[in-house]
Structures
1.
Amino acid sequence: MASIWSKILAAGVVVIAAGAATAWALTKPDPYPDSHWAGLGAPDLAKGEQLFWAGGCASCHAATGATGDALKVLSGGRALPSPFGTFHIPNISPDPNAGIGNWTLAQFGNATTRGVGPNGEHLFPSFPYGSYSRLSTKDINDLFGYLKTLPASTNVAPPHELPFPYNIRLAVGGWKFLYFSDQLRVQLASADDKVKRGQFLVEGPGHCGECHTPRDATGGFLPDRWLAGGPNPEGKGTIPNITPGSTDIGSWSESDIAGYLETGFTPDFDTVGGSMVEVQQNLAHLPKSDLEAIAAYLKAVPAR
């Protein structure tokens, strides 16, 4: 009898070990190899700057209240409240100690598009790498090259304030397994080049869905509610629906939307407000054709 129970116990250990190995294989950090980032040549700094503004880097990484040239000092330190705790935005200036001045292109690219830190650790999805995963290797090279031209800051952001179990980075692997994707958020029939450009900007560097799409209890997007608005992920107020079914902007034309992004004025001459102020000010740096592309995409997505 004892030998039977020993065999059962041994079999149980094997099953548990196999399950753990499978879980680790499915959820471990998965960076691209260094070769993925090789041979890209000199960055296009003008394109890098466009991605800087499209990606809203300054909105999180510059000091609170920064304006003008101070927006390009990416010193970090802002507190980002969430249902899972408070994240403190890191310094991504070229400082070699406090910032990312010693990072390689591969480290920056894997952090930005794969959510894997420079030491091979999972990054928390408060950094919207699920959206930035759409960036190409050339995009990453251009953006990284531009960031290296900006002023260095020695500011050191405090550590995140996350309660258990949200402070366990290994658990982020499970979150990625469920939600992380570099695929299109919506499939649009007969999308022309203008709409496709808008889709890249909205779903990719613009990461509009990070605020405008409601989430489930574990922080994943509700895919059938893409851009449909919902509770502010930072905890105060609501974020509007920006699909054609919206009572806020559903009646706006493409030119109304593009004009709003360029000037901050609504069709009835109200002004942009709340957290959208910084977003609009960032997007206003983009070429008018990009703003028109964003508008075309927002008119093409399913109404919610």
Note: Residues 14-20 have pLDDT under 50 and may be disordered.
2.
Amino acid sequence: MERKVAYSTLAEWFEYLNDDCDYENWSQYLINRLSAYRLGTGLDVGCGGGYFTRAFQRAGYEMTGMDVSLEMLDRAQSAALKAGLRGEYIHGDVAGKKIARKYSFATAINDCINYVEPQRLFKAFKNVYGCLSKDGVFLFDISSPKKFAEKLNGAVNLDDREDITYFSFTRFDGRQAVLDVSLFVKKADGSYTRHDETHVQYAHTEEEILEALRQAGFAKVSVEGHLGEEKTQSDRLVFLAEK
């Protein structure tokens, strides 16, 4: 069966299948991290289905969601309309063309930066730096190399539900992780339709991220683990970079 690009089908089911991520607590942590700054407009890079974009909007920020996946943007727009939230959603690659508008802050949450190839990190950060207004901040996270090596390499994941079954297998070579995903979606007659996707992510070290941020122009950067954990004990590193 032909394998499609990442989030071709998974976009529709992504938030549903990740309902154990404690999105509410996660988004509140991010909002708290931004509360020390005088911010108004934000760009949510790699917004996916838009959960965090909507959370920032509810916290009073004017948001634009951006993603490379059109399917994800469709989900984000639909969810925002359903929630009665008005925001802009744009199709774009953070490591591609310059971002036209200016924002007081940018975010890239839940592994967005892990999808950026190592040789394109500087361009991605330079584009974010260029779209920030004076004293703007960039809040983002990555899955750590430790997570890729110890928890994802060779991992098989299965989530079997009444309406969908999710199956994935991850291969990791020390730098690149290839995630083969299969979705079995239940139809009205009780039969299933199979959809296959391939996801490619990259393990970036803290030092590589810090160097790329420095080269892009960010002057001050703090790093901690997920939800404020000690970073050496966390599967996720959270960076807050100030322009």
Note: The helical segments are 10-17, 23-34, 51-58, 70-82, 121-131, 145-152, 206-216.
